[in-house]
Amino acid sequence: MSIMVTVTFTPNLQRHVSSPPREVNATTVSEALHQIFAVNEMLAGYILDDQHRLRKNIAIFVDGAMIQDRHTLTDPLQPTSDVQVLQALSGG
């Protein structure tokens, strides 16, 4: 069974680095992101820190629920899952 996951990035991330929506064949959040990073290395620096963990100011939602594993990104994906990558905003 093919799993085609849609990964989208918020406009505030797109202001810093090109990050159009992509469809990838992946079973975990990590697999999905690494497929995108393979063709867009600059994006990885905005999403992951030097330990290859999700940066504190980034949130990822799968089908509307925030992921649980921020370190190794092993949260599972279902066929046709929708993955949203957001940059948290602070200030007031």
SS summary, helix count: 3
Low-confidence stretches: none
Provide the residue-averaged pLDDT: 91
Oligomer: single chain
| Topology as a string of helices (H) and strands (E) | EHEHHEEE
CATH topology: Ubiquitin-like (UB roll)
Q: Whole-number radius of gyration?
A: 12 Å
What does it look like?
By secondary structure, the chain is of the alpha+beta class. It has one domain: Ubiquitin-like (UB roll) (Roll), CATH 3.10.20. 24% of the residues lie in helices and 25% in strands. The chain has 3 helices and 5 strands. The protein has helices spanning 11-14, 29-39, 41-47, and strands at 4-9, 22-25, 58-62, 65-66, 82-87. The chain has a 5-stranded mixed beta sheet. Helix 2 (29-39) crosses helix 3. It starts with a strand and ends in a 5-residue tail after the last strand. The model has no long low-confidence stretch (mean pLDDT 91).
List the helices and strands and how they pair.
Layout: E1 4-9, H1 11-14, E2 22-25, H2 29-39, H3 41-47, E3 58-62, E4 65-66, E5 82-87
Parallel strand pairs: 1-5
Antiparallel strand pairs: 1-2, 3-4, 3-5
Helix pairs in contact: 2-3
